[in-house]
Amino acid sequence: xxxxxxxxxxxxxxxxxxxxxxxxxxxxxxxxxxxxxxxxxxxxxxxxxxxxxxxxxxxxxxxxxxxxxxxxxxxxxxxxxxxxxxxxxxxxxxxxxxxxxxxxxxxxxxxxxxxxxxxxxxxxxxxxxxxxxxxxxxxxxxxxxxxxxxxxxxxxxxxxxxxxxxxxxxxxxxxxxxxxxxxxxxxxxxxxxxxxxxxxxxxxxxxxxxxxxxxxxxxxxxxxxxxxxxxxxxxxxxxxxxxxxxxxxxxxxxxxxxxxxxxxxxxxxxxxxxxxxxxxxxxxxxxxxxxxxxxxxxxxxxxxxxxxxxxxxxxxxxxxxxxxxxxxxxxxxxxxxxxxxxxxxxxxxxxxxxxxxxxxxxxxxxxxxxxxxxxxxxxxxxxxxxxxxxxxxxxxxxxxxxxxxxxxxxxxxxxxxxxxxxxxxxxxxxxxxxxxxxxxxxxxxxxxxxxxxxxxxxxxxxxxxxxxxxxxxx
Length: 474
Ligand SMILES: Cc1cc2nc3c(=O)[nH]c(=O)nc-3n(C[C@H](O)[C@H](O)[C@H](O)COP(=O)(O)OP(=O)(O)OC[C@H]3O[C@@H](n4cnc5c(N)ncnc54)[C@H](O)[C@@H]3O)c2cc1C
Ligand code: SF4
Ligand code: SF4
Description:
Blueprint: H1 3-11, H2 30-38, H3 48-52, E1 58-61, E2 68-71, H4 82-85, H5 90-94, H6 101-110, E3 125-131, H7 134-139, H8 145-155, E4 161-167, E5 180-185, H9 188-193, H10 208-213, E6 219-224, H11 225-228, H12 230-236, E7 246-252, H13 262-271, E8 278-283, E9 287-291, E10 296-299, H14 301-304, E11 325-328, E12 337-341, H15 344-355, E13 359-363, H16 368-382, H17 405-411, H18 425-439, H19 442-449
Parallel strand pairs: 4-6, 6-7, 7-11
Antiparallel strand pairs: 1-2, 3-12, 3-13, 4-5, 8-9, 9-10, 11-12
Helix pairs in contact: 6-12, 16-18, 16-19
Bound molecules: flavin-adenine dinucleotide and iron/sulfur cluster (2 copies).
């Protein structure tokens, strides 16, 4: 019985009496990774395979339209690997989209797979939090929780540094490229410099070699779900010593990221907004942009849709389900961080941060809208997962209730039957929302995910904050 079979059994309440089968020998290498993940459009560009490869034969394309790994050696061509042919399997052991990644990571972290109705994964506590330190709060995208947690982990000797995201430094004129860059934060200054959200991709895992070269061995990884699922998958599949430095895993809720080309091809070409003059951006129902001259602009998210990064289009993980703690900005008050505490380690640290006053916390259940959105957006993302891939991420996901619902249901293979989520008034309301989400472009839903739609234009930012190390912060 495979893990997926166990999930199906759990979903249908069928007792699983069969003894666990002896695990099969893991033989999958780059050849299988290329065919089953990269060529099958499941690859998110998380770079888990790149950082684990002991032979350093996997490259990574950071450019526009890229964010994908590729094989560097020509010996067997792009689709095969001579080290793989000789028995190396490390890259597939690190890939959080290879085969039954979701149940494997669940089992490893929580000792069980998620139940079919657990749309946003296994968790222990749900909080709305904000940093007590005013600077940390102000520099953060939402409540500054992530920054506060990194500082707490450093101060309390849980980690030596964190793999986070920075921006390329401004040019001599103060102009920014808005290119997000993976980097290492080891102190307060660097944590604050990396705070805030950029909406292009930054594979923070790629900062691992920089950290190791500096002798930093206990690391926190900050990243979207595609990245924070990688360490648990590595641990579950015994990828070896490369997985050891990851001591803490902080997830960012995420529906999609944009290709860097959006700056020139949309913002500049259509609206005359040059990225070098942008000082800040955010997504709150619309794409918000603040410029150096003090002007403020809103761009309809539907217009941005075509620049969605390729790697996000099949991603089923909105809620960063395999992090110790996952964080987002979907609360009613957009200066609080929705904080999903998942593992025992995450709980230990969050409880201590609350107890010593590092963060202020209130129960997230008080914010019904945030709770509903968390589930709704998790469903929307799960629906993107292709039916041809492993079934686990699709289990329990309600069918879209459209007029053509019977025909749509008929298209799903019989073997892919899933247990419906339990009927309750909450579920009924959520399903109604999902139905609504299905009839509007998905991108609008993504906009909602980043907080309350902007009905009143926010206060413009100071005209010039080019000296500010974190102009991307909010
Ligand atoms: C690309 C992206 C999409 C997101 N989409 C959603 C969403 O749809 N719904 C939602 O509720 N929340 C979303 N978030 C999460 C949200 O924007 C905040 O990051 C989260 O609420 C934590 O806020 P904070 O104030 O506690 O974090 P902060 O203290 O501001 O820390 C944020 C951390 O994120 C890192 N980071 C910033 N940009 C990137 C990037 N591009 N790639 C990797 N790491 C990065 C920073 O380096 C920093 O460590 C998204 C975040 C990102 C980066
Ligand atoms: S999803 Fe990540 S680990 Fe898997 S192939 Fe893509 S970059 Fe590599
Ligand atoms: S939607 Fe977000 S979590 Fe999923 S692949 Fe894209 S960036 Fe990663």
